[in-house]
Amino acid sequence: MVDIPRYLSIDFSDSADGTTTLEAMASTRADVHPAALAEAQHLLGWARQHFGHSHGPLDEGHDWHHDLQLTLEPGGWHRVALTLTGSAAFMQALMAAFPALLHGQD
Q1: Are the CB atoms for 55 and 63 separated by under 8 Å?
Q2: DSSP secondary structure code for residue 61 in this structure
Q3: Which helix (H) or strand (E) holds 21?
Q4: Mode of pairing for the β-strands spanning 20-28 and 9-14
Q5: C-beta of residue 5 within 8 angstroms of C-beta of residue 105
Q6: Does residue 79 contact residue 26 with C-beta atoms inside 8 Å?
Q7: What tens digit of pLDDT does each residue of 78-103 get?
Q8: Which string of b and e fits 73-91 if b means at least 16 CB within 10 Å?
């Protein structure tokens, strides 16, 4: 696996309730789409492996939740959009596992 983020653009936002949202997005040509999708799936695979027991809505006491959307855009571009919302413990573990995510920020 290529170090994340090669294709995904990463943006973080914090909320007043102590949760953090990571938004990862890529808009690529069809030939690169599988690699961009693999990056998103790699992040989700890690989350499921390490925090699978606590996946669900944060307002119901879970550590993390996600939304993955795949869209075909005009001109044949393929969009991958992954949103991960997590508790402080989840995000700290994610950053420890994927320190390169911090380099994807603007």
Answers
A1: yes
A2: T
A3: strand 20-28
A4: antiparallel
A5: no
A6: yes
A7: 999 999 999 999 999 999 999 888 76
A8: eeeeebebbbebbbbeebb
Angstrom distance (rounded) from CA 17 to CA 26: 28
Q: Radius of gyration of the chain from Cα atoms?
A: 14
Distance CA 47, CA 50 (A): 5
24, β-bridge pairs: 10, 82
- Asked if the bond preceding 34 is cis, omega within 30° of 0, the reply is no
Query: pLDDT digits over 38-52, tens only?
Result: 999 999 999 999 999
- The order of strands in the sheet holding 78-86 is 9-14, 20-28, 78-86, 64-72
Pairing label, strands 20-28, 64-72: unpaired
pTM of the model: 0.90
